[in-house]
Amino acid sequence: MFRGPSIPTASVGDIADDAYLLDVREDDEWAAGHAPGAVHVPMMQIPASLGDIPTDREVFVVCRVGGRSAQVVQFLQQNGVDNAINVGGGMQSWEATGRAMVSEDGGAPRVV
After folding, report:
1. Annotated catalytic residue within 53, 59, 62, 63
2. How far apart are CA 105 and CA 43, in angstroms?
3. Are 97 and 77 contacting, i.e. CB atoms less than 8 angstroms apart?
4. CA 27 to CA 73: how far, in whole Å?
5. Rounded-to-10 torsion of CA 80, 40, 62, 99
6. How confident is the model at residue 3 (pLDDT cuts 50, 70, 90)?
7. Phi, psi for residue 59 in degrees, rounded to 5
8. What DSSP element (H or E) covers 85?
9. pTM of the model
10. Is residue 102 classed as helix, strand or coil in its secondary structure?
11. pLDDT of 1
């Protein structure tokens, strides 16, 4: 009945390998496993990093399942970044579809 603004969302399969992927998970989640080439800015640091987010190309925002990234997309849109798109299903979908992942902690890449 009461719905907020529509959040643009893309599925993992719609994201090109060279897309700008903004990972907003916490440091431990990032270290366990993330997409190669992704940019890591934890959700709470987004306001301070607003000027570093490109406005000349699509920005795919990802978290673990899609909730935090949807909030970040909404924040970005409210602050003039109209090219932000939520990644539906987050890194759980990324992993489930077999997309490439790397880790920073020496273990096999995984989503935690």
Report:
1. 63
2. 21
3. no
4. 19
5. 140
6. low
7. -120, 110
8. strand 84-87
9. 0.94
10. strand
11. 45
